[in-house]
Design a protein that fits this description.
Chain lengths: 550, 131
């Protein structure tokens, strides 16, 4: 093989190159890894099929976590949605379900994500903007009105106050007559990536990690079907990381959660099956496919070798994917439909368990009903028309994809080892190491766009004159006032003595090392507001202060 | 001017996506400017206080959450109240075309939406300084 390759280079390739030089001196992947001219069996020389790939549904799960993958069941088509009030968002959820969406995914507004009620001074101008405003159980009841919680699975993008929103979800279910052991869904609950990339933190690292392990413990006993965390590389990638960094930093965060839970006295197999992941899908199709396969294999090996997990479910990396928001352009927004289609293929060929596809207008505003429908249809076309769902892991054995899978696994492992050396992800974050690595990659990427090395169609090449886009979704500026009115009314109607006593009990639990979940559930049932509950925790735990760096 | 241009890059409001702010901060620095970055979750009052204290020539605001119509004009007003009308104020982020004329009327000199090359922003600052 080696000989014949050399012969090809001398006899055929050299001649062609001297007559027709290649387009570029160097070819690089979307996230900056070198791409060779040609991949052959020589590039996957060390690959052992049984150890490195195995069969679907078997360790190390490179080829997928289920034995039949999409032949058995398609991924969950879960469109991320939420804006304005609970009533408005409830309408959008019903619309999406009607259009064939198979799971709900709730976007909360920034005040909710940071634990402020709509009437807080910092909430001004933000209420209902990037998601729905939830101030109390009242809003949550409206949000899921007419949606049977034993029939749908719900994902909630909520992190710092995840315990409070989960408590509200449990309380709504109880009112619908659905017991908590029947609930299916996910709370994102990944605080480490908030410090790294997304910025909606509240508390310092230590109490944040405690809240997370409290949720693990509570759910392993009471809400057994619930995914208690979605360890998120999505935002790490959006902040500008490479594909290998996305895998490396996300898995390093995963390791930190496993360590924290074990330190809190939990058995690894009691919580690890309920850990899930969340990745991004960018445009470099094959690199992205390799990324998902590498992540699956790496996590399986870590859970088995580092943590001695026994339950196969503890070793399976299950993940949700969202197409890459930062890859969308404000210029020629129709082109975004094509980008999203390529990214959808990447997620599906990479074996995702659920998928959100972005809408074409998201570089401009929240998606309109029409653009969100096209985004959902994109998934349905890939699912039902493209044929790629009929066989499992169809790109396995591609010299290129296997070589890339190896390369990304190796590069990600180097980051994990570096973070281990520093003393774990929370320390590496406090030091700013991870943020700095991502920032450097983001700046390199920006430069490659400005130099023209990276072409973005419609933006730095093939530009055209355009009319501004019409029919963008606008959130009613009155939403803030409406929410404030609702809170005022709530505070008149509820039993304020009961609220006070539940908040006092919660404070005591926060000050001790008791699990806080039952106390939060008690408080939300009395209609204590999100701001009141987070306020108690702010007083006990303090607030995180970001290290500002460039 | 005998000293480098001083720029305050600021993130008003609650949104935590600061990739754009950080990229622009670095590009301005590479272009020879002195850059101060406020970090996340700054109120208009805090931003104005930093701008005065650091004696900056430019305030560059970045926002993606949709709260720009509320927060950008507030920064302009507060700077005016401080008598700092010689500071150039620019903004960037996910901002719909429709909103831009109003923001300009309110005193934001230019608004840069996604996809703007950093060189465009750098040139704009150099050509429009007020101090």
């Amino acid at each position: 093989m080696k000989d014949s390759r050399e012969k090809w280079e001398e006899s055929t390739l050299d001649k062609a190159l001297s007559r027709f030089p290649e387009r570029k001196e160097e070819f690089k992947s979307g996230s900056g890894l070198e791409v060779e001219r040609l991949y052959t069996p020589l590039d996957i020389d060390g690959l052992n099929y049984n150890e490195d790939l195995g069969f679907p549904g078997q360790f190390p799960y490179t080829r997928g976590v289920q034995p039949t993958m999409y032949r058995g069941r398609l991924w969950t088509m879960r469109m991320y949605a939420g804006f304005a009030t609970a009533e408005e968002s409830n309408k959008r959820y019903k619309y999406l379900v009607e259009q064939g969406s198979t799971g709900l995914s709730v976007a909360f507004d920034l005040p909710t994500q940071i634990g402020y009620d709509s009437d807080h001074s910092l909430s001004q101008g933000e209420v209902g903007k990037v998601g729905v405003a939830i101030d109390s159980l009242k809003d949550m009841e409206l949000l899921f009105d007419g949606i049977p919680l034993d029939k749908v699975s719900t994902s909630m993008t909520i992190n710092a106050p995840a315990a409070v929103l989960l408590a509200m979800y449990i309380a709504v279910a109880e009112k619908q007559g659905v017991s908590e052991e029947k609930l299916r869904g996910t709370i994102q609950n990944d605080i480490l990536k908030e410090y790294i990339a997304r910025g909606t933190y509240i508390f310092p690292t230590e109490p944040s990690m405690r809240l997370i392990t409290n949720i693990f413990e509570y759910c392993s006993k009471n809400v057994p079907k619930w995914n208690t965390i979605s360890i998120s590389g999505y935002h790490i990638r959006e902040a500008g990381s490479t594909a290998a960094q996305e895998v490396g930093f996300t898995i390093a965060d995963g390791i930190a959660y496993v360590d924290a839970a074990i330190k809190a006295g939990l058995d690894v197999d009691s919580f690890a099956p309920r850990l899930s992941f969340f990745f991004n899908a960018h445009n470099d199709l094959l690199e992205e496919v390799a990324k998902y396969r590498a992540a699956r294999r790496l996590w399986a090996r870590i859970m088995k070798e580092r943590y001695n997990a026994k339950n196969p479910k503890s070793m399976m990396l299950k993940f949700h994917t969202q197409t890459g928001g930062s890859t969308l352009t404000a210029q020629q927004p129709e082109n975004n439909i094509v980008r999203v289609a390529i990214q959808t293929l990447a997620a599906v060929l990479g074996g995702t368990q659920s998928l959100h596809t972005n809408s074409k207008d998201e570089a401009l505003a929240l998606p309109s009903e029409k653009s969100v429908r096209t985004a959902l249809r994109t998934q349905q076309i890939v699912a039902h028309e493209s044929g790629v769902t009929d066989t499992i892991d169809p790109l396995a054995g591609s010299y290129f994809v296997e070589a890339k899978t190896d390369e990304i696994e190796k590069k990600a492992m180097e980051y994990i080892e570096k973070i281990d050396e520093i003393g774990g992800a929370p320390k590496a974050i406090d030091m700013g190491y991870i943020q700095k690595e991502i920032m450097d990659a983001a700046y390199r990427y920006q430069k490659s766009i400005e130099s023209g090395e990276q072409i973005v169609v419609g933006m730095n090449k093939f530009q055209s004159e355009e009319e501004p886009v019409k029919d963008l979704l606008k959130v009613d500026p009155k939403v803030g006032e409406m929410q404030v009115e609702k809170i005022n009314q709530l505070k008149v109607e509820r039993n304020n003595d009961e609220v006070e006593s539940k908040l006092k009990a919660l404070r005591n639990a926060c000050e001790s090392d008791e699990n806080v979940m039952p106390y939060i559930i008690d408080a939300v049932k009395e209609y204590a507001t999100l701001g009141e509950i987070c306020g108690v925790m702010r007083e006990v735990f303090g607030e995180y202060e970001q290290a500002v760096m460039l | 001017m005998d000293r480098p241009i001083r720029v305050l890059v600021a993130k008003p409001g609650l949104d935590g996506h600061d990739r754009g702010a950080k990229v622009i901060a670095r590009a301005l620095r590479d272009a020879g400017m002195e850059v101060i970055y406020t970090g996340l979750r700054q109120t208009p009052e805090q931003i104005v206080a930093s701008a005065i204290q650091e004696d900056v020539d430019v305030v560059a605001l970045s926002i993606l959450s949709g709260a720009h119509n509320h927060l950008f004009p507030k920064v302009v007003e507060l700077l005016k109240a401080e008598g700092a009308e010689d500071i150039l104020i620019i903004g960037g982020g996910v901002i719909p075309e429709d909103d831009i004329p109003e923001l300009k009327k309110a005193g934001i000199e230019e608004v840069f939406t996604p996809g703007t090359p950093t060189t465009t922003t750098i040139e704009f600052i150099k050509n429009n300084l007020k101090k």
